[in-house]
Amino acid sequence: MTRRTVNDQRPSQGGPPEDASLVSRARDGDVEAFEELVTRYQDIAFRVAWLVVRDRGDAEEAVQDAFVKAYYALPRFRPGAPFRPWILRIVTNEARNRGRSARRREGLAARVAASETRRAAPSSESTALDRTDAEALLAALDRLPERDRLVIAYRFLLEMTEAETAETLDVPPGTVKSRLSRGMRRLRSELVAGVAEVEQA
Amino acid sequence: MSERSRPMTESALREALVAAGAHIDWPTPPDVVADVGASIRAMQSKPSLVSPRLSMPSRRRTLLAIAAALLLLAGAAFAARLVIELGAVAVRVLPDLPTSLPTNVATSQDLGREVTLAEAEEVAGFPLALPAALGPPGRTWIDEALIGFEPDDVARRIVSAWPPTTGLPVIPGTEAGAVLMQFEGDWQVASKLLSAETDRFGEAIVDGRPAFWTTGEHELQLISGDEPVRLLVTGNVLIWQNAGYTFRLETVLQKRAAILIAESIDPVVDPG
Q: How far is Cα B251 from Cα B105, in angstroms, rounded to an integer?
């Protein structure tokens, strides 16, 4: 089985110009060109939405509605700007609009693969962290307030740049820096507290 | 303190987070390409198609959800200075320039269920007030916000849109020259967020009553069912009350012209 990964959807060569060309055609009413953009970014969009709502159904709805709204917002898209953070910002807003429902939310730690075979091809970094440590780290991340949790999750779990994280969360770059700094401090505290609890038990 | 409970360095924690990301068994992403394309084509070929997601709220929704939606409106206006409450619409001014304006102007699916003029009054249960200066609207929608425990505890609104003409230029980003919202009752189901640029908003008078006027881009939040919808407003907006209704008119016209349109709603609707 072939798994799609979220970062392999960007065009390998001249990515932004190709996006720009598709955006330009979509603005002129070419729905197929827009569908190509959807194909390209739907996986990362889904993860972005899922990190907000923690529910597969809500995330799917948010992604679908976000792309439809984005199509109609294309006349307002700044020519030459990167498409990916723009669409991810719309996805985040759509997901946040659904994020207050009473459905039970899945924890990040619960999604840590129980089996090596279910995991995506591990990167070199993944071998440096065992499953128990990953669970502890993600459980600690789950305990953070949303604004800290999301900035850390987008920046590191999805490996966005700081600039892209800022645009996706619709905050100034400086806010990302300050939230990351504060969030990482809190995460360290949560992590130590969690380990200490386990050791005491 | 054991080795494991020692705090990690910042760089080690960053590396661990990236590594942890590779351990997450993400839910399988859905393929939404076909659905997105179909939705866009359906809206293009059938302008009156009602989006299923934005149809009238289902009966299973609860006050908890309503409260959550209303709290979201309040939360979005965090640190904002309340300027004015005009019936169903609250206007708040942020102390600084907004950093999070929505990216989307209202589309058909944001405005509720599209109806004919006759259906609008029948479904809403109150008379539709239209400005004589504009003639019959091109399109009309109806939507409702849940405001209580019971399924019928709703505040309805009717939205009418007129196509652009020479005297009624298009509102940027939309296909309309004018959009009029008529809100039932005083339940605060709409909120405007402005930035503290004092030349962009101010008072007005419509039919001798206090009104509110604002120009330029800002955020409008509407409750649809129990969900808040954030929209970008690009036109100039006049808000006023009359006979128990709150009206919101968006155009790119200047204030005096907008007031003339507002005052052409005659006779004034009266719920009795």
A: 13
- pLDDT given for residue B58 in this prediction: 29
Are B103 and A76 an interchain contact pair (Cβ–Cβ within 8 Å)? yes
Are residues A31 and B40, on separate chains, in Cβ contact within 8 Å? yes
Are the C-beta atoms of B166 and B65 separated by less than 8 Å? no
Flag whether residue B241 sits within 8 Å of chain A, measured between CB atoms.
no
Question: How many whole angstroms from its chain centre is CA A101?
Answer: 20
Among A11-20, A39-48, A88-97, A105-114, the range of highest mean pLDDT: A39-48
Domain at A15-98, CATH class: mainly alpha
- The ranges of chain B with pLDDT < 70 are 1-7, 42-86, 88, 90, 92-109, 147-153, 186-199, 226-227, 266-272
Q: Phi and psi at residue A113, in whole multiples of 5°?
A: -60, 130
Output DSSP code: residue A126.
G
Q: A125-200 architecture in CATH?
A: Orthogonal Bundle (1.10)
Spatial distance between the Cα atoms of B201 and B237, rounded to a whole number of angstroms? 9
User: Which chain A residues in 4-43 lie under 8 Å from chain B, judged by CB atoms?
Assistant: 4, 29, 31-32, 34-35, 38-39, 42-43
Cis status, amide bond into B7, omega within 30 of 0: no
Give yes or no for a contact between B129 and B264, defined as CB atoms under 8 angstroms apart.
Answer: no
Task: List chain A domain ranges.
Answer: 15-98, 125-200
Q: How far is CA B90 from the centre of its chain?
A: 12
CB contact under 8 A, B24 and A113: yes
Chain B residues closer than 8 Å to A112 by CB = 20, 23-25
Chains A, B: CB contacts within 8 A come to 187
- Look up tokens 């393929």; give the residue: B31
d(CA A75, CA A53): 28
ipTM: 0.81
Nearest of A133, A130, A146, A128 to residue A186 by alpha carbon: A146
Alpha-carbon distance values, A155 to A171, B81, B121 (Å): 13, 33, 50
- pLDDT for B103 equals 63
A153 to chain B, closest Cα gap in Å: 8
Q: Distance between CA atoms of B177 and B216, rounded to whole angstroms?
A: 15
Q: Which residues contact B230 (CB under 8 A, 6 or more apart)?
A: A93, A97, B76, B102, B219, B220, B221
pLDDT tens digits along A61-118: 889 888 987 887 787 788 888 999 999 998 998 888 665 554 567 777 777 755 444 4
d(CA A61, CA A36): 19
